[in-house]
Write a structure and sequence with these properties.
Blueprint lengths: L5 E4 L6 E9 L3 H6 L13 E8 L2 E11 L10 E8 L1 H13 L3 E2 L4 H8 L5 H12 L3 H11 L2 H25 L10 H30 L1 E6 L6 H9 L17 E7 L2 E7 L9 H16 L2 E7 L6 H9 L4 E7 L8 H9 L3 E3 L8 H15 L11 H22 L4 H19 L5 H8 L7
Parallel strand pairs: 1-6, 7-9, 7-10, 10-11, 11-12
Antiparallel strand pairs: 1-2, 2-5, 3-4, 4-5, 8-9
The chain binds guanosine-5'-diphosphate.
Length: about 450
């Protein structure tokens, strides 16, 4: 209930130097006044030092800040209490606050209130959650831009253009008798085409963002024993993949997530592409094949000492149409003329590599970054939009085509105006100006408590 005063810990239940408790709602100040030993010292936006008291017992020494509405995160009166970071203390203070009239907050309730009170739009609210859960630098910087309105501004600009267009078309309805035209059909179509381009561009930026948030898959492939697991290990600097001299040991897909160029990257150590001798091997090979088919970037490894044979060529053939990075591994065992010798066979540059000495690792990282810049066009400007937003944009693009068709078929202006309103409403759902309760609940329930 929006009338309740809510409270929640904003820090996880672990022992740490500080624990933070948040309170929001009209009763915040009254509640804190009744549990703090210097209530008279509390004034908006000032830090106050004192003790939390329960029946003359000191629960903890704290500092607290009172934010008077509307100048707070939720737009309501709020208090943040900074106590010592012991979960027992945090719990005691929370219990005391609840005994004095507040209730425990639902997940995401602070952000939901901020949204309902008009402090943030829905794209910013979702971005706040993404800042907390982000797993790469790109996601963090992109979420922060989105928190500051980057996605909202683009959506609102498109919406303003549609509102103007609709007004022009509706003016035409009012003056139909007088035969005054406010916008020609051709102009209206041109504008719709223009807006469609903007929507396409926005959708593209959201799709790239969605892809990056999930992480980019890069399988490491090559025949058995060329050093795939060792390379993965080197990259991860861990011992997760089993390295052994018996060919075909990696029977499952070993997946590790790391960052390249600030982007979350899922590296897969695939089973060697070879003839399976048993069911487990067959399954491993099948999994590798699926991963290779669904990935657009692949690391292919061959043994620099043994050179490229027909088996390697067959593997190269299979990934013909993919963006690939080719590593000549075990370069420590041979001379450095490998790259020149095999360049023509593979049809591109080869990175001289050694999982043993680490040679070539910097080149590999540089190459992956370059490919990202190239493949994920303009990814610095993409959005951390989730599937909800992508769906709304797709629906908007379908709708804009409908409007165009209606205009071309010279349908009544009222019908076109009605359809344009549906389109505008769809865009309003992205920022949350129109926001059915179930949508809000599903968005905010994904948040953690205290946010
Ligand atoms: P995979 O079957 O392709 O995953 O190959 P592994 O990573 O299991 O490596 C097979 C063998 O080659 C192991 O004995 C590794 O120690 C060895 N090996 C891997 N990379 C290198 C390298 O760069 N130099 C040398 N000298 N040996 C390597």
């Amino acid at each position: 209930m929006l009338n309740d005063t809510i409270c929640a810990p904003a820090t996880p239940p672990i022992n740490s130097p500080l624990g933070i408790i948040r309170i929001s709602g009209s009763e915040s100040l009254r509640v804190v006044n009744s549990i703090f030993n210097y209530p008279e010292k509390i004034k908006p936006r000032y830090v106050v030092y004192g003790s939390i008291i329960d029946n003359n017992e000191i629960i903890d020494d704290v500092v607290l800040v009172f934010y008077q509405n509307p100048q707070s995160f939720t737009g309501e009166d709020m208090v943040d209490i900074f106590c010592h970071g012991n979960p027992i203390i945090v719990k005691k203070i929370i219990n005391l606050i609840i005994r004095n009239g507040a209730v425990m907050a639902e997940p995401g309730e602070f952000s939901k209130r901020a949204f309902i009170n008009g402090k943030i739009d829905l794209t910013a609210a979702e971005a706040i959650n993404q800042v907390i859960t982000a797993r790469s630098e790109w996601e963090i910087s992109s979420s922060i831009r989105q928190m500051h309105g980057s996605l909202r501004d683009v959506v609102n600009e498109i919406k303003s253009r549609l509102i103007l267009l609709k007004a022009d078309i509706e003016a035409g309805i009012d003056f139909l008798e007088e035969d005054i035209e406010f916008i020609s059909e051709a102009d209206a179509i041109t504008q719709l085409d223009d807006i469609r381009i903007q929507l396409d561009n926005l959708l593209q930026r959201c799709r790239i963002g969605e892809k990056i948030s999930h992480g980019i898959d890069i399988p490491i492939i090559g025949k058995p024993n060329v050093g795939k697991s060792s390379i993965l290990n080197l990259i991860l600097n861990s011992e997760r993949a089993i390295v052994s001299n018996i060919p075909g040991t990696t029977r499952d897909l070993i997946n590790e997530t790391i960052q390249f160029a600030g982007i979350r990257t899922n590296l897969f150590d695939t089973a060697g592409i070879d003839k399976p001798t048993n069911e487990i091997e067959r399954k491993g090979i099948e999994l590798s094949q699926q991963k290779i088919d669904s990935s657009s970037i692949i690391i292919m490894v061959f043994d620099a000492y043994l050179g490229i044979n027909n088996e390697d060529k067959a593997i190269l053939e299979k990934i013909n149409n993919k963006k690939k990075i080719i590593l000549a591994n075990k370069i420590d065992l041979t001379t450095k003329d490998v790259a020149e010798k095999y360049k023509d066979i593979v049809g591109q540059n080869i990175i001289l590599f050694s999982a043993k000495t680490g040679e070539g690792l910097a080149d590999l990282e540089k190459e992956i970054s370059n490919i990202y810049k190239h493949e994920l066009v303009d990814y610095e400007n993409s959005f951390v939009a989730d599937i909800r937003i992508v769906n709304k944009l797709e629906a908007s693009i379908v709708k804009i085509q409908d409007c165009k068709r209606l205009l071309t078929h010279k349908e009544p202006l009222e019908v076109i105006s009605f359809e344009l309103q549906i389109l505008i409403d769809t865009l309003s759902e992205i920022t949350g100006e129109i926001s059915p309760d179930d949508v809000l609940n599903s968005i905010f329930s994904r948040f953690c408590i205290g946010k």
